[in-house]
């Protein structure tokens, strides 16, 4: 059956050429990202277990979760944890199939704790974290569907995924600054830089302003002076980094809410604001491309935690993003591409109701058919997305 | 100080004229909407209490909450509740100011329960609902800020709000069908129609397909046959209603996942899918205009539960929406308007960093300045939004 | 099979004749009693439901539960509820049998709430109470055992029950004062008397001192003076009541921890100390005779919440108590009787491993055989205890 | 001031000479003991922290806690954890004094987890345990009282403690069997023996029957046959051990509920029945002497978790127990001694309202005064009990 792929020439001016552009990224230690990451890891952990036991990923959707911030008292050199960070894990996951039981709760807790240990280095996950898992078993019909479903699964819902490429300079800056500051290499040299890093980039005309909020870790600092020095050093590092990315005039601001003269600075025990009241919810942070881009088309779909087999909201989000980047890599004459994939519930996921591809290109007429083929081919291979997700090769936030 | 208002002529084709359009609304009884509604009501309840005690709304942001679905066994004529619906309420709210304590937990629970009773008529809120409130006290600095802050509050964050007008036919249909089916008048005649109504409208060219999912209430039905008859009747009613809204060819589908021949239909004890496993999170449902419109510019901002005083994410979302509709009402020559309001943290909220107004109009040159005045004036009066929200005159989902 | 009933002449001096005697009763509104009462009511509610659905009481033991006190701010005329009272309900109960499901959670919550409303008149159960039910399903083997077990059930465990009769004057005083102050008649006249009433009686020689702690209800009092007057009035009422019970010299103390001169008195919003921090656990309060009597033989067994079919800890406790009172009623020549019933796990409950009856009587030799018959007969009819419990005719705390 | 110490000659036959005697011990891995142990460890951990920060133990009473059993699927060689064991920790503890904050929650969780790891070797405490701590701050008045109270604290309540000595043979057997099977030495050789060991001893005349229930650990066994062999070996070990304690005819029964022919045996993943549904509550298990002795005088007082400074229920329980054993050690002519210490609220704890000492001795008249001195001296030194408890030298269950 022929796929309903519609290629159109854009009627709009691409974002990098518009007057205003706003981009945000919540780093991996931001409360919203933490809970996204936990639920996605649980999905991956469950998927691996299902494959081990049944040869197939079974039904699950653990795409709802809540982090309730704790309470700490912080001082230079250390601090105290007065109230633990609380996690509510929720969603559904197959607990039994073919007479075998799956220890869903054990996997959920183990995965969540291990993930947290990896992501927030300075959090004592054993003693300052409380987890309430309310993940419950799914319906029996769904067990069958996943065990003995068709090679190309049917869409579980009417949902859509959106993607675009390439990234503008602002988008690149925002994404790469966070990656850089949260890289193992940087942490080695600057352990005082916590994982909760929020980057916001605003372009007006050809001037960019980047605001970076960093939760510094108290135990690596002995005084306000040391804080100020380290913050200044980090700012310099960011400035150098940004020069590698864009020729545009870019100004960097770090922790603008600090009042150093009053001694009020962004100092934490653990490197995340989750320690002192900030809450987080699945799906309230970055989209699958790692960014929040209000001036681009976005879905509200929370990809994290959804099953990577038939949940089209997740699969199409990842696919649209990857497809867009494949197109501009393959066909540099495409200046900008926006993709929307709309599923039809109950139909094979390689047959979207519509795949809408909007292109900005001086060579639109010649590139059009090539893009069509590429999209068609990727839709044919849609199930590969599933493996990529399980293997951790496709990010979702 | 002059406001940074930028009026531009649109470079895009307005949505109603594009080839594909997709619109969704999650009705008031949908799990995401229920928790949105509860948190917003708590914000309003707290606001009223603060005003009563202190003459001002004090700091709070209760914009995170989670509904974990219960478990029921349903049969024609009734059913059983096997596991309660669980609510986690979270966020922060001032618990003490000027030596007076505020019974935040009591207000939260009372408001949540009363709201639920109003919104899900057939839910036994006392016995089939469990509430865990983890709303905690805010910082003392914020108490002062709210008690003795300036007449025009300072923006609490760098956030933005987006709005557009007018609604396309598909948008109108989607919104109005849900309002119609959930109106007291309709419930009087059709008590079997539950409050969890999800409407999705898809337009391709000039053909519209509307899919409506309705959780029917078991106690008003004695058999599968009665279910089928009542569903058919509701479908007819929708068809009539739609004819009043659009001349376009519109096809209506109700509960497409039903397999009547197998006896598998969308029957519930309470009228919401929250009873049997579906979870809900604040901010994952409708935007402040009541819709999810992936082809329009949207924010990820969850308005529900945020304080209506200085949380620009909420205030600018409501304001952008209302402003857009005021513009098209006042100036019918404006065919389409898109508004983005971007705040600057720490600056008065009547001074956005940028107010971007993009207009589609044949009379752009003549209407431009008028729109500018209107926007300027509304920004001047931005604090009126606060009252509207507290009085329930501005919807947020 | 003959029953192993051993009648012995006491080698001890009966408690009322000893030098020191100490007796305590925690009133129905005391945190320990509240949670005892809730779990017992849930057991009764489940029992009735099982009988309705299956004609038999099915397996359950909901004999563990925890009340975590709330927080209030109290003032004359009223007050505020700052943190709800939290209840953890736990234990096991059959959720499914013969293909029918039982809505255990619904019954548990409904019963708990209704019981609370009845017992703590001034508690807003809907808004100031949080319930977390972790009652879970029992094993499938036990379903069968209860559905198709023998007419006389087998003991579920090796447990014992203890009872004695008659009550000493101190025991009578302690029990009756609480009953009197918590009677509907007294509440009618003195609504300010809360349900949390703790009575402690100490006899040294022939002098009795009775200390009564009463949680007064703030909304029925406008001032410290009114508090003092009402407290004095209640003290007088108690003194009158006590004169009806004992000829011994008895001194009454009410709320000895009050410091009226500092304004520090026992004033509550609801009439129970559970509102402000006092916790309660099942089985930590009164024994089945309504008293705590350290100088008498007592079991640690918590009767409340246990199933009344085969849980010998509960059944033998109630039976030993009733048997003892039957003996002294029937045979007034018995001055004092102490009973211990020890079960053998897996054996019919009408065949205890040993029924030990220790008697103080001047006519021991003549009354011995009569008592033997009575005990034998009551053991034969042991299953009647089950009905008495379900019908609420046998108290358990 | 002279202490009110009353020495009396017993009017009763000592328990070892009566016809029937029943004694029970719940081993350290029994659900009731686990939660007793956790709350006691938290009290000790808090005490140490308070001493470190303030030089004094501050107010706390964390004597209520609940363990809700998990769910496992067990097979020879291993098994799965389907639902974690849940702990509710509750009570009150000073969170702030002299401007310093105490990280009560952190200490509670850390202590609880470390204790669990030590006591239940085969439990994966990180991933199969869920802790909800609802320990909350105490009143400010109490902070002052503890910081600046008198050298000999005032009794916090009217409570009593009971003790007796020496142990009968049955009591010795029951206590020592559990200690033996749970000793590190025995675990070294028999790691398959779990920590949940319940011992019940019944003496009728001079015949003793001891029933031992042991949760065996699945991973150390590969088959039913191996289970049977190991169980038989343990039984032999117990028999040998018992011969060292008593000359009386003693029969040993191990896991009498096993049906080996049906393959139904007492096999667990972790060595405690808490893994599969058995719940536990503070204060429902052993008294401070390590035993449950229904034929002896007992208090219902839960010692575990109470503060060791002014909580007379705890202090007098430990003191009465130690005093009784000191008396029989010092004066072997005392055959049996029973002690009851009754406090008077608000009075120094070295001045009980009454210390009642009942003695069985052929040399009563000569030993009487010596006992009086000993008791008087120990009361004088009552505050030493506090240190013993904090240092872990005085057991409470």
List the helices and strands and how they pair.
The structure is a homotetramer of 397-residue chains.
Chain A: E1 5-9, E2 20-26, H1 31-54, E3 60-68, E4 71-75, E5 78-83, E6 85-93, E7 96-97, E8 100-101, H2 104-119, E9 129-133, H3 140-147, E10 160-165, H4 169-181, H5 184-189, E11 193-204, E12 207-217, H6 224-245, E13 249-254, E14 267-268, E15 280-281, H7 312-330, E16 334-342, E17 354-361, H8 364-380, H9 384-390
Helix pairs in contact in A: 1-2, 4-6, 7-8
For the biggest sheet of chain A, the summary is: 5 strands, mixed
Quaternary class: homotetramer
Q: Terminal Cα separation of chain A, in Å?
A: 33 Å
Structural class of chain A: alpha/beta
Reading the helices and strands of chain A in chain order gives: EEHEEEEEEHEHEHHEEHEEEHEEHH
Global mean pLDDT of chain A:
95
Share of β-strand residues of chain A = 25-35%
CATH architectural name of the domain at 15-25 and 168-275 in chain A: 2-Layer Sandwich
Class of the domain at 15-25 and 168-275 in chain A in CATH? Alpha Beta
> Which chains make the largest contact?
A-B, 54 and 55 residues
Number of helices of chain A: 9
Report the CATH topology name of the domain at 15-25 and 168-275 in chain A. GMP Synthetase, Chain A, domain 3
Share of residues in helices of chain A: 25-40%
Low-confidence stretches of chain A: none
CATH homologous superfamily assignment of the domain at 15-25 and 168-275 in chain A: S-adenosylmethionine synthetase, N-terminal domain
| Strands of chain A, count | 17
Shape of chain A: flat
């Amino acid at each position: 059956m022929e796929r309903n792929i519609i290629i159109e020439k854009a009627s709009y001016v691409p974002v990098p050429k518009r007057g205003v552009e706003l981009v945000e990224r919540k780093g991996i230690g931001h409360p919203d990202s933490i809970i996204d990451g936990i639920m996605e890891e649980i999905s991956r952990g469950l998927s691996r277990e299902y494959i081990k036991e049944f040869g197939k990923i079974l039904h699950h959707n653990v795409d709802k979760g809540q982090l309730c911030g704790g309470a700490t008292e912080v001082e230079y050199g250390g601090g105290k944890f007065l109230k633990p960070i609380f996690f509510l894990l929720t969603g559904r996951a197959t607990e039994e199939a073919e007479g075998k039981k799956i220890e869903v709760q054990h996997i959920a807790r183990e995965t969540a704790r291990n993930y947290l240990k990896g992501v927030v280095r300075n959090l004592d996950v054993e003693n300052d974290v409380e987890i309430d898992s309310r993940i419950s078993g799914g319906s029996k019909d769904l067990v069958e569907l996943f065990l003995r479903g068709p090679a190309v699964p049917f869409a579980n819902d009417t949902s859509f995924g959106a993607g675009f490429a390439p990234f503008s300079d602002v988008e690149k800056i925002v994404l790469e600054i966070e990656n850089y500051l949260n890289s193992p290499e940087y942490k080695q040299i600057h352990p005082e830089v916590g994982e909760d890093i929020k980057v916001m980039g605003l372009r007006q005309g050809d001037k960019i302003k980047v605001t970076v909020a960093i939760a510094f870790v108290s135990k690596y600092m002995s005084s306000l002076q040391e804080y100020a020095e380290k913050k200044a050093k980090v700012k310099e590092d960011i400035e150098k980094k940004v020069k590698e990315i864009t020729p545009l005039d870019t100004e960097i601001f770090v922790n603008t809410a600090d009042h150093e003269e009053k001694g009020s600075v962004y100092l934490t025990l653990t490197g995340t604001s989750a320690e002192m009241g900030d809450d987080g919810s699945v799906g309230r942070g970055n989209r699958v491309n790692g960014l929040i881009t209000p001036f681009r088309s976005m879905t509200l779909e929370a990809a994290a935690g959804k099953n990577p087999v038939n949940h089209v909201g997740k699969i199409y989000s990842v696919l649209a993003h990857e497809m867009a980047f494949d197109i501009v890599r393959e066909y540099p004459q495409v200046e900008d591409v926006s993709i929307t994939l709309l599923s039809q519930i109950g139909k094979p996921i390689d047959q979207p109701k519509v795949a809408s591809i909007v292109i900005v290109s001086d060579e639109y007429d010649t590139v059009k058919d090539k893009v069509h083929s590429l999209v068609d081919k990727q839709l044919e291979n849609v199930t590969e997305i599933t493996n990529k997700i399980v293997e951790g090769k496709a990010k979702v936030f």
